[in-house]
Design brief:
Helix content is 5%, strand content 45%. The chain is mainly beta and 214 residues long. The chain has two domains: 17-96, Beta Barrel (Elongation Factor Tu (Ef-tu), domain 3); 99-212, Elongation Factor Tu (Ef-tu), domain 3, CATH 2.40.30. Strands 1, 9, 10, 13, 14, 15, 16 and 17 form an eight-stranded antiparallel beta sheet that branches. A six-stranded antiparallel barrel has the order 3-4-7-6-5-8. It is globular, with a radius of gyration of 20 Å.
């Protein structure tokens, strides 16, 4: 039976810094996948953004890592056994998730649904289809509007640069999820009579999120 969670005591952390990219020379097909770098491997527990077009299933995603040697680390919990065979140019960047987003009152998600591919032939008497690619997902948050809030200032700066930032949503039971997203935030106040003055943000996720139980 699934363990129920509630949106209570949720800590949201946004990328505050990102290190220079280091070259990845290999990613194994294993459980978990092992990354080999020509630079220095990150420490256990670090968060990294992986850019690996030659292994599409990990490309553009954020992972927690476990250090193995000076030049290798594993993508914690990520089974890459059946993923594409690594090829081409790849890199990783160590992330610092040091900006707290602490003004959100609501969160909703859209997208992530699958576009379907029609497989009906002229011989069929009923249409058939298979799942295609999932659509991009968007998290929309409403914030208590506050021009002095550091988190909102960071969202606004990222939005003005049309930049991507990594995010971590951590629940009170220790579970959390990670993703890299384009930030949309204008800071425009909104609301209704006798209600909170709020302002929305939109986080558009073009790669799968990464979830951890603890």
């Amino acid at each position: 039976m699934a363990k129920a969670k509630v949106w209570k005591n949720v800590k949201v952390s946004m990328q505050s810094a990102i290190a220079a990219a280091l070259v990845v020379t290999a990613i194994s097909n294993a459980s978990p996948g092992v990354v080999t770098t020509s630079g220095a491997a990150p420490v256990t527990g670090a968060f990294v953004l992986v850019t690996a077009p030659g292994m599409s299933q990990v490309n553009g995603r954020v992972f927690r890592v476990t250090n193995l040697t000076a030049t290798t680390f594993s993508l914690d919990g990520e089974d890459t056994t059946l993923y594409d065979v690594f090829s081409g140019i790849a890199s990783f960047q160590v992330l610092t998730l040091g900006t707290a987003i602490s003004s959100a009152t609501t969160i909703s998600a859209s997208g992530g649904d699958f576009a379907f591919i029609d497989t009906t032939t002229i011989h069929d008497n009923q249409k058939s289809q298979i799942p295609g690619l999932p659509n991009a997902a968007t998290y929309t948050l409403d914030h208590i509007e506050d021009a002095a809030d550091a988190g909102q200032a960071a969202l606004l700066a990222a939005s003005r640069l049309q930049g991507q930032r990594a995010f971590k949503f951590a629940f009170q039971d220790g579970a959390f999820f990670l993703f890299n997203a384009y930030v949309g935030f204008s800071g425009i106040p909104t609301g209704q009579a006798q209600g909170l003055v709020t302002t929305p943000s939109a986080l558009t996720v073009n790669s799968p999120i990464t979830k951890y139980a603890a």
